[in-house]
Amino acid sequence: MEPQTQEASNSQRHTSDQNVHNVSDHVDEDVTSDAVDMDQYRINSWEDIGKIDFSSLSMKNICQLHFADLGLAFEFYNSYAKTRGFSVRKSRSRIVDGKVREKAYVCSCEGYRLEKWNHMKNRVREPKPETRCGCMSKLHVFFDAVIESWVVRDFCDEHNHDLVVPKLARMLRSHKKMTEPDISQMNHMKEVGISIPNIFGSLASQCGEYENINFSIKDMHNQVAKQRRQLPDDLTSAMAYLEMLAARDRNLFYSVEKGREGVFRQIFWCDGRCQLDYDLFGDVLAFDATYKKNRYRLPVVIFSGVNHHNQTVVFGAAIVSNERKSTYVWLLKQLLIAMKGKIPTSVITDGHQSMAIAIREVFPNAHHRLCAWHLMRNATSNIHKPQFTKMFTKLMLGDYEVGVFEQKWEEMVGFFGVEDREWIVDMYGKRNMWATAHIRGKFFAGFRTTSRCESLHAVLKRYVKSRHNLTEFVQHFQRCLSYMRHREDLADFKSSTGQPVMQTHFQQLERSAATIYTRQIFMLFRSMLHKASTLKVIYEKETSSCKIYQVSKFYKPNMIWHVSFHGEQDEFKCSCMRMDSIGIPCSHILAVLGFVDIAELPKSLVLRRWTRKAKEGISGYDDMGGLMEDSLAISRRACLAHWWLIVGIIT
After folding, report:
1. Residue 129's pLDDT is what?
2. How many CB atoms lie within 10 A of CB 117?
3. How much is the pTM?
């Protein structure tokens, strides 16, 4: 064990007091008793603290506790203090080799106020009542390297002042705090003109009573003032960071919109690599605004698509102050400016009404699809019948003809008696935005849901935290992009090394596709080849312009598809239209290729965006890769310099 400081020595001398319990008093007992399970005294999460019955907790129990991290130790002591009726604060630390090894948490009444604060000249306000009276209550923890936990060194629970009744403990300083959901709700209500006192009353109504709120109106005013102080400076710093990146990446684009008196509204940015990716893969665009992982709980909008490895690729990002139609219109216009006016073929969103209006205004010719996952969730919340949700999902994703879809829809709503429900009427009116039967033939690159956005948020969660401000968010977001591009490099490597083992009866056709497609897309293609082996051509007809083949499934003669071959254009088309929707030949076309003994995949059936050569001949990708690494390497130093320049520390 490392030498103790003077403070630690004094602390140990103090343990002789009858109200101080030292861990060493129980060490022998713990070691010799097999009945004691150390894991039952380990606090691993805040959930563990919530399960503790503080009313029956003894001093001996507290001295046996050990914590996974230092924050949990404070949270435990603060929760314990609330049940007793006192407030706590953090006290001195013992640091060894730059790391905190011991920490003391004390009662807020510990120590004494300096006399000068009571006798200040020209004081206008009445001095605040004295609260410090030399209370010795404390929790002292140290890091035990053996069990890698924070262990209680000593614990004192004697107070020399009156404790408040539990009902009023919520008003003590360490127990008063606004949670992120509280702040977010306050900001939303404040945007529509509701006053702080009325917001406080509304929150009290939601909680049941005023005594259930852990903060005051003054705390709300302080939070609003804090946001006003932080946001303008933070926005300036974020812009300085983007300007630093722009100095190295001449194609980086960013735009900021401010309201009256310079109040922040939204910021959009995308680097040069994002623009190159959009130029190749921007035919399908997905975005939502459900992610709010930043200090201000502002919506984050991420524009994304899918690359030639079927991986999510980011085209740009934005932080906005609200989700109104005007905000989305502004964002989509900024995206158009950054992407040299290229409009996506298809757009998929979560169904937010403001998004839909903005898409119709800015991308009037784009196919707009609603996320299937959100629709399933809405079906459950609106109809409240699991069987209906199951049938609705099958009808939404099923590959039906339009007539069959209409028939099944009428049967479904009639069976459940929901014909007049507002949600049902609205969904039927929007069927060309979600039903596969009506969307067939429109290219969505396999997108059915915004789950790619959700998975992107899961990746982003590793890099950005709720405590990050705008500047930190942009910095860590760029780090996340670098990681995603690294994954793309790995996929490029896997696609260019080795050859997959042939597994189907159409080995020549399979081998041809293996040399064309990326590895992930080839796997999708091979699954179509497997399905093609279950099909047969039952009829062939030649017309003046093309040949028509009827394809059926073995033992299911009623399932028939029509494949046409136009010889002059070397073009195949199928009635299922999956080639048009996904960009990969369907099993019906592949069955015809096998029937006519075509060994190589025709060029008309190869969509360049899915191939190994998708980026071949596109200048800028190699330079952008190195540029991103250099930018991230200098970001901490350069951004720190920019920050000090902004606040005036460096002149």
Report:
1. 79
2. 11
3. 0.61
